[in-house]
Amino acid sequence: MIKVLIVDDDPMVAEFNKRYLHEMEGFTLVDVVHSVKDALNCIQHHKVDLLLLDIYMPNETGLSLLRQIREKEQNIDAILITAASGVDQIQDALRYGAIDYLIKPFEFERFQRALLKYKETYDYLNKREKINQQDLDQLLLLKEEKSSQEKMVKPLPKGLSKKTLKTVVEAVKAQGKKPFSTEDIADVTEISRVSVRKYLKFLSDIYVIDETLTYGIGRPLHSYLLNSKKQNILKDYID
User: CATH code for 162-238?
Assistant: First the structure.
């Protein structure tokens, strides 16, 4: 089992990350802490394989924690999960060895993809003492190959129809440049919210709309925005 430490000063976001982690097989939660000091204390007393690490925290930043781990040559990996989107911060995180970088808010699917990729690499390397160049190339290029595959046309998921998709797309375009919700589209189209959510999920998967999460009381709220630069993708589905 891969042992994970969540380091985030926002208790609500930390709780969401904890719930997401519990959905993943092969991972176990060591602890949830809210400061660099508490993270260092936990690492001193427990084995940790992976950090789910925020940057913005009181007193010291997540980058400071990552730097201290590298200086001590501790074998701990890190996935940054943070609202910090500055290029300098991202570059620093990568230089300190961050294996992935998720910008808040994000979808569970992106979280899942980051952890599955990490687990795949972790399992592969920990089962071997040596690795040849061919296998190493395959491992390192796997992410690139998958990225290329994702650019291919995705089939319309089972249960979705072109006719209804066209109706949803027209309602989405009518929203213009303002954010909208599942309820907004359901009200306009008179299609059930459950069905609308499936179509919006598909449109998000093919990048026709951008999806974000807003953290509040209870479950995170989904909102969407039309991506005007990706409208040509629709010709593969409704033309």
Answer: 1.10.10.10
